[in-house]
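S.,

Sequence below, as promised.
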Amino acid sequence: MIWKKLKQIFCPDNNYPWMVSHASYPWAEQVENELFNIYFSCRDTKNKSSIGHIAFNMDTLEVTGVPDVPVLLPGETGAFDDSGVSMSCMININGKKHLYYLGWNLMVTVPWRNCIGLAISSGKDEVSFLRYSKAPVLGIHDVDPFTLTYPFVMLDGGQYKMWYGSSLYWGPKVQDTRHVIKYATSADGINWNRLNHICIDTNGKAEFALVKPFVLKEDGMYKMWYCYRDESYHMGYAESADGLNWERQDDKVGIEISESGWDSGMVCYPYIFDYKGRRYMLYNGNEYGKTGFGLAVLEC
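The prediction came back faster than expected:
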């Protein structure tokens, strides 16, 4: 794979009180023809994250609107998502959009504890979502006892499949953590069966975390883009015949940092989609999305 970078698309600049900085974890939804909604996580002055979106024209590659209404705000005080909500993925189930998000709790003995929440739209044109529950749909559990991260959900073979991040332990420092990608299944997209199976593990070197999987299934093969972290985040790529056992092929990912500019220190959090016969990638740049997100096209 070789990805050609097209342009930086969007970076918040104190647009609204809830959208002061960052545009992390972009996720595109085609609304009509060339018109897309791109969802992402943004932060306020206290670093609390909300989910917002922009309107985007794929033919002109221009932002056509930055709505002042958030998609989802942090939860009420004491809830699993009271410190922020982060965009993860979205899927249509029975005609309604199901938005899976990461809920943040700031902690005392460790920096944070994350769980996976769900919000559901009331119709296909809605961009405001209501929480399915005040509790997470995937929370702390005996097989995931510490913290969870960004899920990817797809319908495949009559069941919903989720790949998500899970920490196996906390170390004295974040860099001592071992955070891997696991797998769960569901009949309805709400109640999940955890297999406690590690799909992709860290490489045992300086790498300590794998996060934000994005999965496609093509010609019977599962393909995953994700991020791995050592001193910084990098993009990785893996393939699997069954969705459970993966072979890392990070050398094939085909996108690296630029020599200068908004993505010269980091490329991360990929979202892959097809438009008019070509394959595109939305991705974040420096400082985990502080410089916003950009667009690349697959050349070969």
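The longest helix spans residues 286-289.

Coffee later?
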